[in-house]
Amino acid sequence: MREYLLVLFVTAAVTYLLTGPVRKFAILAGAMPPVRARDVHREPTPRLGGIAMFGGLCAGLLVASQLTKLSGLFIQSADIRALLAGAGIMWLLGVLDDKWGVDALVKLGGQMIAAGVMVWQGVTVISIPVPGVGPVAVTPTMGMIISVTLVVVMVNAVNFIDGLDGLAAGMVCIAAMAFFLYSYRLWYGYGINDAAPAVLFSAVLIGMCLGFLPHNLHPARIFMGDSGSMMLGLMLAVAAISITGRVDPDLITAQTLSQTATVHELVPIYIPLLLPLTVIALPLADLLLAVVRRTWSGRSPFAADKQHLHHRLLQVGHSHSRAVLIMYFWAALIAFGTVAFSVPGRGRALVLGMAGLCLLGIVVLLMPRFRPRAPRAVQAFVPPRYRKAPEPQVTEVPAEAALSAEDEELLGRLGTGATAVGGVRHGGQG
């Protein structure tokens, strides 16, 4: 665990330190597109944040290659080389799109090429684990189709939610944390070494997001752009593919001595790729709704609009920060709930807990105008909108100091106002 945490911290530190210089470079390079009608920010903001994130990725993997326990992964598995190749292609495609703009179909083709390169290097679904039956092999063609489809869906799902400050980085970080916990449990708890690459990829992904988030929270000073969002989606997909088809349910059955317990332990991947899909359930739902909505109205599925889930939260009255936190809450509830369900002996308590959290989330979702006030002791540490507004103070003027003698004399010469108005009316009628 210590080596994974070291990789995580190094990745986060490098990403954080690189983001500032990258922001200046993006401004000098002119990667600051004008504000569009569907954007929620009001001022042009530099993109290309993916450059800093790619630097953090390289630094994290470089440190991992020098550590005692993790260095063996670079020799035993080709997944790391495949990840760097695919991420490099996706990152370059995103940089070109952030600076000059790339046609949607060309972008889709580049995503498929990046996925194909990784499949060619061995990152592909080989088999589907079925408890009691064992790994069910799939044909190379079917494995390639599943892998490429998963990469493209993940990439576009993350790209679609990159519409609010800190939303995409935060939700991917939550998904990576859930996937890290599950993969680490398989690797450390059951001794399944094939899960080690997924643990490493998840740790690096968490570090990239944590290092970039301080610069990207509202109000954002830099956006990750497609160079960052597409790379994050690809890394989620690679982490999912690297563990799918490599976990033999019989290895867990040998330790649990129960096929029923094995089924329960492997619920998140009992149906292939279920866990990686649930950890980004909200982005996937947003993606599917967008495709259906645009196709139904006769437009291209890639045509941008302002009807995503986060846009709708703003439309019903939630603030920018609250909309992001609501999305964080539901993403964490689904992702960690799925992982927690694989822990034995927690079924009933887990269901009751999730039901209570869902009720809380619905209440917050339906109260967009509610503004909680923080206690007086902590008001200095919370945003101004959560502080209690001071009561207006009314200053009374003493009666004896109301008018001076000169003011009373002047008021007597001018009249009360009603006399002047009456005089004007009289003169007009004459």
Q: Biggest sheet, in brief?
A: 2 strands, antiparallel
What gap, in angstroms, lies between the N and C termini?
100 Å
Order of helices and strands: HHHHHEEHHHHHHHHHHHHHH
Helix content: 55-70%
- Would you report the number of β strands? 2
Description:
- The structure is a single chain.
- The chain is mainly α and 430 residues long.
- 65% of the residues lie in helices and 2% in strands.
- The protein has 19 helices and two strands.
- A hairpin with a 3-residue loop joins strand 1 (127-130) and strand 2.
- The longest helix has 28 residues, at 2-29.
List the helices and strands and how they pair.
Layout: H1 2-29, H2 49-65, H3 73-76, H4 79-99, H5 104-120, E1 127-130, E2 134-137, H6 140-160, H7 167-189, H8 196-216, H9 225-243, H10 249-256, H11 259-265, H12 267-270, H13 274-278, H14 281-296, H15 309-315, H16 320-340, H17 347-365, H18 405-414, H19 418-429
Antiparallel strand pairs: 1-2
Helix pairs in contact: 1-2, 1-8, 2-4, 2-8, 2-9, 4-5, 4-9, 5-6, 6-9, 6-14, 7-8, 7-9, 7-16, 8-9, 10-11, 16-17
Brief overview, please?
By secondary structure, this protein is mainly alpha-helical.
Give a quick set of tags describing it.
single chain, 430 residues, mainly alpha
